[in-house]
Write a structure and sequence with these properties.
This protein is an alpha+beta fold. The protein has helices spanning 12-18, 49-56, 105-117, 153-162, 186-209, 211-229, 256-265, 270-288, 333-347, 363-372, 440-463, and strands spanning 8-9, 28-36, 68-71, 81-84, 94-96, 127-133, 139-147, 247-254, 298-305, 319-326, 381-387, 394-395, 398-406, 415-422, 425-433, 470-471. Helix 7 (256-265) packs across helix 11 (440-463) and helix 8 crosses helix 9 (333-347).
Length: 487
């Protein structure tokens, strides 16, 4: 008798993020890297695209999702699943988009905004890598874009890392043979769905016959759910407004060693310092809009990864969360850090269930949440902080000088902040809804000011003068338009 094939269905957490498509929100995540293109460009300044593809082709087996399609069976055949693409051509996924001279940071970010807006072709694997030459000093941007159903932040970092080397002269191995697995038949899909439903019924029955264990697990998860569902709603501000598909990006460069020193001196964590800087950015942004920030507290949903065992080989989505109140009304950065560190310390020990758990294990529960999402008042913004590799990495022999993570706004969260550590840096990317937050650069300035304010008493005393955490960033070419508070 032939062995039963185990099909790769999406998880409840994957499905939770896949549903973004149905509500018109951007579904891509990714990262922007700045490369030293000295060995990546030819004499005319063009990317040696064929050489890059030849270098990356042997690595595709390290990221199986990069050669798979998302199949959505008809009703009765179960959840979506991953199947091998019957045909895969790397040239359809690695492209070049040159910046018009003179290329600068503002133009680079606008191109990434445009590329992020392009929908994926569902007939191909859901990822793209864009090489963006035209920056000064032979630098080249590299924008990796993934559909969120493929990966959360740590899994996206693992996927990107599989394409990179630890040395500039890493050997290029031959591509291992790849034969796509046949698409499952209707009968296979039906039997697999039936088997999974039986398994779920078994889990449900086990919960009924062991009520004490079920109650114990529910009690462990209850504090985390209470943070989202029953804590006092945050005051209304202009941060929460239904978002569209257009976004605006800005970046903040930070020094990881300085941020670690600030955290150590004040008995806090790096993530506490990140949240304190975000609170400083929010204070400056809302005040510039004429909103009253006195005594104001806003709520950040801080993403937490459950890729704990083997983060370097992570794939898929296992997101958790921690809700952290940000004291926007506190004008002193150090006092804000003390308050935030106390909050995170008290909340850190709570069990953190995945987003696809509880009522969100069921499609009906997920859809109810999304119907309410554009009007929710539990969350004001999302903050993600992903640890990246401490050493320098290389793409087809080109050093990665900087890396910036990119997450999309969604629901009524007009501002999303992603931070990533890499090779001594801690860089921030701020993604904002274009219509609701055209003044996102004001927020970025507030983040820089807060980081430098925290570092000045420590680093300034060591250097005998003004010293900060951040590096200066050119302003975007487009003018910053003040946004009026909503009626």
């Amino acid at each position: 008798m032939a062995e039963t094939r185990l099909l790769e269905r999406v998880t409840a957490s994957d499905l939770f993020l896949l549903l973004w498509d149905d509500y018109g929100w951007s579904t891509d995540i990714g990262g922007l890297a700045i490369l030293d293109g000295t060995n990546l460009l030819d004499e005319d300044g063009n990317v040696r695209l064929d050489a890059v593809r030849r270098h990356l082709e042997p690595r595709m087996h390290l990221v199986p999702r990069f050669r798979q399609l998302l199949c959505r069976p008809r009703l009765g055949l179960g959840w979506p699943l991953w199947i091998d693409a019957p045909y895969f051509d790397l040239a359809e996924h690695i492209h070049v988009h040159a910046l018009a001279p003179p290329g600068d940071q503002g133009q680079l970010l606008r191109i990434c905004q445009q590329l992020a807006r392009r929908p994926f072709d569902p007939a191909r694997p859901l990822w793209e890598l864009w090489l963006l030459p035209g920056l000064p000093d032979q630098r080249v941007g590299a924008f990796l874009k993934l559909h969120h159903v493929l990966a959360d932040g740590p899994a996206a970092m693992a996927a990107f890392g599989a394409l990179l080397d630890r040395t500039a002269d890493a050997p290029v191995d031959g591509a291992p043979p790849w034969t796509p697995t046949p698409t499952p038949s209707t009968g296979e899909l039906f039997r697999d769905n039936l088997r999974r439903r039986r398994h779920e019924l078994g889990i449900g029955w086990s919960g009924l016959v062991h009520p004490s264990r079920t109650l114990r697990l529910a009690r462990r998860a209850l504090p985390a759910w209470r943070e989202v569902l029953t804590e006092k709603p945050a005051p209304r501000t202009s941060l929460n407004h239904p978002v569209g598909r257009e976004r605006r990006l800005t970046i903040v460069r930070g020094r990881l060693d300085a941020i670690k020193l600030v955290a150590h001196v004040h008995h806090a964590t790096v993530n506490d310092v990140v949240l304190t800087a975000v609170a400083g950015g929010l204070r400056q942004l809302l005040a510039s809009r004429g909103e009253d920030v006195h005594g104001l507290v806003q709520r950040a949903m801080v993403t937490i990864s459950h890729h704990e065992a083997r983060p370097g080989e992570a794939q898929g989505n296992t997101p958790g969360w921690m809700m952290v109140p940000l004291p926007i009304g506190e004008p002193d950065s150090l006092c804000r850090l003390t308050l935030i560190a106390a909050e995170t310390s008290a909340r850190r020990g709570r069990a953190r269930p995945e987003a696809g758990s509880g009522i969100f294990r069921f499609v009906a529960g997920q859809r109810i949440w999304y119907q309410l999402f554009p009007r929710q008042r539990s969350v004001n913004l999302v903050v993600s902080n992903v640890p990246g590799p401490p050493m320098r990495l290389y793409l087809a022999g080109a050093p990665l000088l900087e890396v910036f993570p990119v997450l999309p706004p969604m629901g009524n969260l007009t501002l999303v902040v992603a931070a990533l550590s890499y090779a001594g840096q801690l860089n921030f990317t701020v993604a904002a809804d274009q219509d609701s937050c055209p003044d996102v650069e004001v927020f970025a300035r507030g983040v820089r000011d807060a980081l430098d304010d925290l570092a000045q008493p420590i680093l300034g005393s060591e250097t005998g003068g003004r010293a900060g955490v951040t590096e200066s960033v050119p302003m975007p070419d487009a003018p910053v338009t003040p946004r009026r508070s909503p009626r």
